[in-house]
Amino acid sequence: MKSPKSFRLHIGIFGRRNAGKSSLLNALTNQEVSIVSEIAGTTTDPVEKPMELLPLGPVLFIDTAGIDDTGMLGEKRVSKTFAVFDRTDLGIIVTNFSEWGSFEETIMEEFRKREIPFMVVFNKTDLYPENLDITTQLDSVEIGYVLTRADIRLGIEQLRQMLLNNAPADFINRQSILSDLTGPGEMAILVVPIDKEAPKGRLILPQVQSIRDLLDGDAFCMVVKERELKEALGRLNRPPKLVVTDSQAFLKVNADTPPGIPLTSFSILFARFQADLTEMVRGAMAIDRLKPGDKILIAEACTHHPIGEDIGSVKIPRWLTQYVGGKLQIDNMHGRDFPSNISEYKLIIHCGACMWNRREMLSRIMKARQAGVPITNYGLTIAYSLGIFERALEPFPAALQVYQQERGK
Fold this sequence. Notes:
The protein is of the alpha/beta class. It folds into three domains: 5-172, Rossmann fold, CATH 3.40.50; 179-268, Rossmann fold (3-Layer(aba) Sandwich); 276-408, Rossmann fold. Helix content is 39%, strand content 17%. It has helices spanning 21-29, 71-84, 102-114, 132-140, 156-166, 169-172, 179-182, 205-216, 229-235, 250-256, 266-273, 277-284, 311-324, 358-371, 378-385, 389-393, 397-408; strands at 9-15, 47-53, 57-63, 90-95, 118-122, 145-147, 187-191, 220-224, 242-245, 263-265, 295-300, 329-334, 347-350, 375-377. The strands form three sheets. The protein has a six-stranded mixed β-sheet, with helices on both faces. A four-stranded parallel β-sheet has the order 8-7-9-10, sandwiched between helices. Strands 12-11-13-14 form a four-stranded parallel β-sheet. Helix 13 links the parallel strand 11 and strand 12. The longest helix is centred in the first third of the chain and has 14 residues, at 71-84. The radius of gyration is 24 Å and the shape is globular.
């Protein structure tokens, strides 16, 4: 089974039209991934290619449309290119020595603003010889660069090594999902409801990833449905280190789990793993400030047809309405759709973003912070509205302390 996108280092390839971005991607992957043509603007939508970049591991290359595209259609292509910055962990600027200018400076500014490590590739060196003024300038600000000719793979191995050298430390030494909360030789019980929205014949991605993380951490794992939890606990000769539930079953699992056993949800684990748990804890506290008629955005990374009691479009709106005591205005968005003006919302509630990389989720948190709009996620919202927020945060002392301090103000 291939590694999911969320576990891959996202490497964005940016530059002008006809700079050789697609040729470079083909050379890096040893495959004809992107169409190569002398006609400017051949790449329209971002092109993705997953591969293993050893010894780093799984990566996802993203080839983008030219940042200098023009016309009404060109503006839409450029808009899609800029959206790729939100999920880029490591950036490549492709250019040549005759074109270095404002477009390249714009790309560099986006990388710097987002604190994304990046490098410059001067392609087509057979046509454009090195310009020492440009390379000296890059040396002076410690920006790495490499000279390539993608059509004959000249400089490609040097580029590969530069990618390895510049991979972000938080990708290489990424925090575990939950095995640090259990420890080697200890047990976690995962509560997995099987309902209409559960994929037939398989588990959803956060559940699979959690199981694998426990195995990697040399911990034991027991998987049960919510109706079986009480009996499963009774069969153990010592209590588990942690119980993790699907957020929709929080109330029953909370009732069946003795107070001395830490309890949380998959969604809250992913608020820590994929996002910023502390920021989202603060965001959940904004639920107390909601009033009937306030506007809420519920954002889900996946695009699927809601079935029955869908969590984002049915259950969370119902629980929030009951908590607030009146009807709220709720907008639901899916996939990468996100409003350009989010300041009209009183709260943003996001899914766990298990299909995205962490960079993209952090980009959304940054946008919310800049707009002054609190942001939280599904699991934290459910725990807060059901009155079990403190218990759901017990496995995370730092986040629980933030909540208690904010409440004490």
